[in-house]
Hints:
The complex is a heterodimer.
Chain A: H1 2-8, H2 14-23, E1 24-30, H3 46-52, H4 55-58, E2 67-68, E3 74-75, E4 80-85, E5 96-97, H5 102-115, H6 124-135, H7 140-152, H8 156-167, H9 172-188, H10 192-200, H11 207-223, H12 227-234, H13 247-261, H14 264-277, H15 284-290, H16 293-296
Antiparallel strand pairs in A: 2-3, 4-5
Chain B: H1 4-17, H2 20-24, H3 43-53, E1 56-62
Amino acid sequence: MVAEVLRSGAYSDEVVANLVQRRFIALMYDVAPPSKNFGDGSAYDPAAIAAVGEMDELRSGRGGGGSEDPNGRVRADSYPTALFLAPDGERLGDGLWGIMPPERLLSGLRDVIAKWPQYFEPTPEERAVLARADAQPDDAAAQLAAARLSWELAEFEAVVSLTERGLGKASPPMRAELRYSKARALVCLGRDDEARTSLLAIDEAAADLALAVQVALARLELRAGKPDAAVARLRPLCTFTTPLQHSGAVLYTTGLALWRQGAHDEAKVLWRQHRRELPFDRLARRSAASLGLDEAEAFRNQELFETKGWW
Amino acid sequence: MRSASRLVLSVSMLLAAANAQAAAERRWDDGGDLDKIVWNRPFARAQELARASGRVMLIKPILGGGNVPRRGGVPCGGKNDCEGSW
């Protein structure tokens, strides 16, 4: 249940998920055999324990077992967030520990990448995408493809640079994509005003992208401490017959804005809708965790209380 | 000048106009969203993938509490979780 906080939190973040999928092989395992397990121990893996080491030794000197404060904040400083093994089994560093928001987890992943760059070389396909963008600076599609790749690699400055280069020659639909990508990267760089300007300049977008733009604007409003504006923007979009790619994000984010307004029961209605109607959406787990321990059998989504480190 | 504030007014119409092909292409219907992290198991399989790709394993140990995926459950944590809870 403690691990669920990360699984529904930082590990369900788009930036973190993209970078992990691009650059790491993710593995989970349970250290407790079925006879000593609160669950069924189905993920118990002696081979992983042998390779990673005994948890008691790894967590030695780290205080704080898993606990939840009355307000829902989870403390778990002696719980591993991520440990890293090279392909040959060598342990890389001490790993990351405790509950953390996406921005801190991203920072930890970047540290690992910077320290052991030999394991993080671009693939030939990635090199080709970037080379094409360099060779054809007037090709907006090439710039967009490279910007999307850079986004997935969490290279935000590169996204901004590539999208700006692409905007000059882009068709209107592509201009919308470029402006949206640029805005997402600017948010991650903490340049919220510029991000908002980029989003507001989008005047023609397909349905999926139009919805994504509204979610991005609402998140900027939440970051600015304006949940009322976010609710007003997204609430009309919570009713749909055919869900789009970002419909789940609409439901979760509207719930988050309502929660920050103090309308907790209304927020829960939307999170339940998200869980029920779009159970495989990336953020469905976060909506579920927002419902709390009794309903979701998981500790509370930390984004309800934390405003820093989420984008 | 058209702006995103006007854009929101047209989103509902666009939603209604989303065609069947777009719905059929929704990638989260079967097997989940590609943006989600794929958590490999068991260790031997993950190491095989790491060796083949030359990539680092990012390992999330859980300290007890894992449950086998429940068919027909929802991916929400807890014992009734179709992706396996932890």
